[in-house]
Each structure stands twice: as structure tokens, then as C-alpha cells.
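Please produce the structure of this protein holding magnesium ion.
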Amino acid sequence: MIEKKPELNDALSTKPGQKIFKKNPILGTKFTIAISSAKGGVGKSTFATNLALALKQIGCKVGLLDADIYGPSIPKMFGINEKPKSDGQKLEPIKKYDIQCMSIGFLADQQTPMIWRGPMVTSAIKTFTQKVSWKDLDFIIVDMPPGTGDTQLTFSQEILMDGAIIVSTPQEVALLDVIRGIKMFDKLGIKILGLVDNMSYFIGDDGKKYKIFGEGGVRRTAEEFNKEFLGQIPINPEVGTAGDNGKPIVEENPNHEISKIYLNLANKIKSTYLQD
Ligand SMILES: Nc1ncnc2c1ncn2[C@@H]1O[C@H](COP(=O)(O)OP(=O)(O)OP(=O)(O)O)[C@@H](O)[C@H]1O
Ligand SMILES: [Mg+2]
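Below is the modeled complex.
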């Protein structure tokens, strides 16, 4: 039997007797920023890891929370194989590249499929936000799973989030999902910092720009919905290789053209939230 998932609108409805959700901040950080997209495989985890590393490189204290319970990516992208320590009350984040990290993948075998049900996902998210000893952070970057499901609902209802960045690729089919994502965050009252156009183009050996997935759609969508367009990130095989090898491009080569894009963005985010 297929279980009915709670709908976004159920949670947001103003029916009498509606549950009022009290939002808790994640303790140990000044700001929490979600990296999201309604569509899968557009590069959220790649973006989240590299943005976290870029923020660190410009002097911020950063945590990385892998909220993808069904398909965690941070253990692989950061090359982490250890299990977090616990004092019986709280879990200790694992520090790698000077970033405090937490992922369900640290606790479960990476090969084990996560066939968790909604309530378990909700409780995992609560654990990661309330029972991890995040320490003295400026930012926690949250790598969201694709979609608008249980994780997004739990976060938006219960956790105080300071902003969201929506990542997309330029295909029309991805853009439809972007619009769903924009509407979700708007409805939930979470500030959208902007839209990022990932895998926008590829520069061939001949030096030409190939717009494999089309052009301009993410910028157009941003304009249409009055959101900021945060820029393009080209397709570059080194980005994938670096992620696969457990050392994202920004850490591996801070002078890479892609790393510079992330560093610019990090500076922008830092100046939005933190005063020097
Ligand atoms: N700019 C880029 N250039 C080349 N490869 C990229 C780029 N961005 C992401 N990738 C690759 O695309 C694949 C998907 O990226 P990633 O896992 O970050 O997507 P995701 O949106 O987090 O996926 P999911 O929805 O499954 O969580 C990865 O193999 C990654 O290395
Ligand atoms: Mg991911």
C-alpha cells in the first residue's frame, strides 16, 4: 500500500486546529543556509561541498550538514570513512578540511540502501540539527535531497533557516522543478538568496563554448520570479573527478577557474550575513 505523504499545503494550511510549528535554530551556528533543487542530479552536493570550502577559505567557520538521508554524498565527496563519536547525549561532527561535517552516511554502511520511512527521516533530521555538537560556526551549509518531500518539510517547519540557494541546470525540464522549489521556499517564508546555473556550458579542446543543455533559462526564471541570479558554473570534468576522489575542486585547486567562481560567491554570502 502506498502511504500518503504529507503535502506541503497540509503543513501550511490555516485550518482551525492547525499545528503551529515552533522553529528552532541549529545551536552552534550563526546562520544556516540550504542548498536545494527540486530536481535530482543537478549538482547540489557538489555545490554545497565547494561552497562550504570556499567560505572556509575566506575565513569563515563552516559546518556541512548532509540532509540527504536516502542518498548521502558528503562521506564520498569529503573522503570520510570514520564514525562520529558520541558522549551519549550528542554526536561529535567529523572535522575534515577544517569543516565540521555530519551525514547519515557516517552512521550507516554506505552500501546499505536507505529504505527509511518518513517519520524516521524526520527523526534523523532532528538528531542532526539538535543533537550534534556543532561548535562556534558562522555558517552551516545544508545539502538537501532533491524534491519537496519529508526532509524539506521537516527543515522548513521546525528549523530556523536563514536562506536557501537553488541550484539548477539549464534544461527546460529542470526549470519546471526550479519553479516548484521557488514556490516552496516563498510559501515557507525562507529567503531565497538566489539561483545558480550549474553545468551551463562546456569549453571544448577547440576553445569553443558548447551550451549542451540550452541557455539562459535559469537567469530568465530568476528574473521572472524576482530572485537574484547568482551566476553560471560550467561543466568541467575535473569537478567530478575531484568530488569522486574525496577532495572537492575548491580544496584541491583554489586557483582553478571553477574555484574562483565559488570564492566569489562565498564572498558575496559572507558580506550578506557577516559584518567585518
Ligand atoms: N560543474 C560541474 N562540472 C562537471 N561535473 C559536475 C558539475 N557539477 C556537478 N557535477 C557532477 O554531476 C554529478 C551530480 O552531482 P551532485 O551529486 O552534486 O548532484 P545532486 O544534485 O547533489 O544529486 P542528488 O539529487 O542525487 O543529490 C556528480 O557526478 C558531479 O561530480
Ligand atoms: Mg546530492
